[in-house]
Structures are given as structure tokens and as C-alpha cells.
Amino acid sequence: MPEGPEVECVKKALQKLIGEKIKNIELTEHSQKYKKYKGKNNQFKYFKGKTIKKIVRYGKYFVWEFDTDKVILNHLGMTGMWYLSNKIEIKNATHPKLFIKTMSGIIAVFNDIRNFGQLRIFNNLSEIKEYPPIKNLGIDGLALPFPTELFIRKLNEKKYANKQIANVLLEQKLVAGIGNIYKSESLHLSKIDPRKTVKELSLEEKKRLAKAISQTLQKAVKSGGSSINTYRMPSGEEGRGQLWHQVYRKQYCANCNSKIKKIVQNKRTTYFCPKCQN
DNA sequence: CCGCTGGCCTGCGAGC
DNA sequence: TGCTCGCAGGCCAGCG
User: Which residues touch strand B (CB under 7 A)?
Assistant: First the structure.
């Protein structure tokens, strides 16, 4: 579900936990029906009494750091969400996986409907940085200024030449943080046909694409993320990103009013305007 | 190293 | 009303 901008928005909200000492942390009953969490409660209980020092974003991942070497790698998957509250009841948490209560009374619940999210404990930060999905992350799509020249250099790598640009944009080792919505939106903003292979793109188009990616992702952060299906802020509020989508799940192009085309590339849906994007 | 396939899961809306 | 089907912001393991 969440792409880089949504993860960034959640990260910002989670900063409220920095400096908080953990009174209680445990996997929920509900988590135990999944193989990947089964019997792991003691490993998480290790963090009881520890203080949360940092919550950092790498692409679509969070890394939780404490006043100890061990760290937690956390990914929201398609439906993962953190809910923060001062009350015990958190209405939105229908599929809670991890429950944290701090000394000052803040409650944080990791909720994940489809269970594609991740919570993995590593012995230390350098172990996480060697973990391939983290180690191989490319340019942070939210970096400012966006490194256009580096982007083009990476895009020009042989392995991408014959791939369709829409598929390439989802490769986290090229740009980390783009997902299926902002893939379509970035290509629409830069007026590029998603079916074009990288070698068919002109230098001009690559530059436009770099700019469009950066603009799209920045705008999404400012909107609080896109709430298309299940994404909510940790407060339970919806983001407003969906209000300005130009193509994603749209019927008509916001630009020229032509009928938007919906195609499938690498098993992911792409929306584009056949008139504007060529 | 690469690319492809299937797998992991639940919920929702469309269509019958 | 109730059922099935297809689809959903993502990633990973295993194979050739």
C-alpha cells in the first residue's frame, strides 16, 4: 500500500516516540497465527525497558534504533500501519501485530491486514545495512535536491535498456520509494508512454522524468500521503494525496480529458493517457 | 549475476 | 441476498 511518501509521513508521526522508554512490548495473540511471528514474542520482549532513540526511513523501510545495539527493521508491506494513541482502545487496529506501550502512556500498534508487512530484529545497525534489500536501495526518491545526473547514469545501465520504463520505476535499486501510484503519476507528469523501453527514451525525457518523480513524491508528502484503500495516518486521519491524482484510477485525463488507458505490466496496473503520453 | 513465477494474506466491490 | 472472481500503494524465495 504505502509508497515512499506515505512511509515518510508515518515516520514523521512516529517521531513522537523518540526518547520514550518502553514499558511493554509484545506480539499480539493475532500475530501468532502467522508462521513468521510464531513464538517470537521473547525476542521482542528484549526491548522492554529500552528507550527509542531513532526511527529512520530507508526507501519504504523503517529502522528503529534503541539505547542498545539491536535494531528493528520494519516494512509496512501493502496494508501495514502504525496507530498511535493515548487510550487503550485503538478502533482502527483490526489486525494488530505488535503492541508497544511507553512509560509516559503512549500506545503504538502495528496493524497489518494482509500480513505482508515486516518486523525483523537485527543484532546491530551494520547488519541491517548489509541486508541486501537495504544495501541495494538506490537513490532516495525524496532526496532534495533530486540527483538527476546520478538518476540518468543509473537509468543508462545496460540491464534497464530493454525494459519498459514503468517496470523500471518500481525497481527500488534504481529509485527507492516509488510505488505503483506514483509510477503512473510520474510518467503522466513527464508525458512519457509507460510502455517505452529505457533505450527509447531521449535525454530530454529522462530529465523530465527525474523532475516529475521528485515533484510527485514531494507533493505527496505535503498532502500527507494518498489514502486510496487502507492507508491512514497514525492518528487515523486520511491523507489528501488522492485528491490531486492525475491518472491513477482515473477515467479521464486531468490534462486533456481523453479516456485513460489501464494496462498491466509485470502484473502491476498502469494508468496512462494515450494522447498526452507518447 | 539476471529474470521470471509463485507465494504470502485479507477484504472489497462487481457481476452473476 | 449470497456466492465467486478479480483485484489491491509490496516484497521475497526459489528456480533455471
Answer: A 33-36, 94-95, 113-116, 159, 163, 266
Looking at A57, A60, A206, A232, which residue is catalytic? A60
* Reported pTM: 0.96
In chain A, the percentage of residues whose pLDDT exceeds 90 is 85
C14 C1' to A35 CA distance, Å: 19
Chain-wide mean pLDDT for chain A?
Answer: 93
Q: Give every strand in the sheet of A80-85, ordered side by side.
A: A22-27, A96-102, A107-112, A80-85
List, in order of start, the domains of chain A with CATH numbers.
4-135 (3.20.190.10), 139-272 (1.10.8.50)
| pLDDT score recorded for residue A1 | 60
Q: What's the residue count for chain A?
A: 278
For the segment A143-162, the average pLDDT, to the nearest whole number, is 95
Which residue's C-alpha is at the least distance from the C1' of B4? A266
Mean pLDDT of the A151-172 span: 95
A268 is catalytic: yes
Cβ-7 Å neighbors of strand C: A 1-3, 6, 59-60, 75, 77-78, 114, 116, 133, 170, 172, 179-181, 225-231, 239, 268-269
The 10s digit of each residue's pLDDT in A55-103 is: 999 999 999 999 999 999 999 999 999 999 987 677 778 899 999 999 9
**β-pairing verdict for A175-176 and A139-140:** parallel
> Which CA-bearing residue is nearest the C1' of C9?
A1
